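Bench log. Compound arrived from synthesis this morning; before running ITC I wanted a structural hypothesis for how iron/sulfur cluster sits in the protein. Inputs:
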Amino acid sequence: MSKNQKIAVSEYFYSLQGEGRTTGIPAIFLRLTGCNLICGGKGVEKDAVLRDGATWVCDTIDVWMKGTTLSFADLVERLDERTNFVQRLKTGVHLVITGGEPLLQQERILAFLEYLEATYQLRPIIEVETNATIRPLLALDARVQYWNTSPKLSNSGMFKPQRIDASILEWFSKNPNTMFKFVVTTKEDFEEIQTELIDTGWVDPSKIVLMPGADSIEQLLERNQMVAEICIEHQLRMCTRLHVEIWNRLTGV
Ligand code: SF4
């Protein structure tokens, strides 16, 4: 790996992990450019009209569609200026690599992590947030402590062959570092998870975390109870949405 190798980046910031099993942990977020899905339905990025049965739209679409390709050296310099990157990672802050779909650039991620180790003797705690449609390289898997996967349901407006690959889901199911996070807005969402993903054996229910779909405090309070009842009945883990609880609709925090 070399400091001149490049990676396409959309944004980076320091905050708390707001979702899933590491909720509340201080983390630096590195959002990479591009995604292989367009949740909300193809075309939603142009006119904001939901299509193909979508009930929600990706909330970072405007961010991951834009980006800058940076050399590893430039990226670390910018991250350091903004987040005190090297020092924070050395003292246990997690690095959350997100997107878009970050595994579209997985060779570059791997090279970047090797660069951090070779240049700064830094082997940080890594979380990768993925839609679980791309199988990770084994060399990358060896460096990732948390695979935060979020397979998409039919309410994303994506067709099944685009969003579900049974063999990749099975690979993640067998991986001890995987969590499957599903956003649930209605009881029907859970029925789909049950019949299409749990009953088929593709997703291990002990790795599932259900989270209410909500982008305001009012909506969160309304849906928390419905999701809690599903989790109690089916013995599943639940998480809420820390950023909505603390900052409500404010973004960029
Ligand atoms: S997979 Fe994730 S990043 Fe990609 S469009 Fe869907 S919600 Fe957005």
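What the model suggests: The CA atoms of residues 215 and 249 lie 6 Å apart. The chain has a mean pLDDT of 95.
ITC booked for Thursday regardless.
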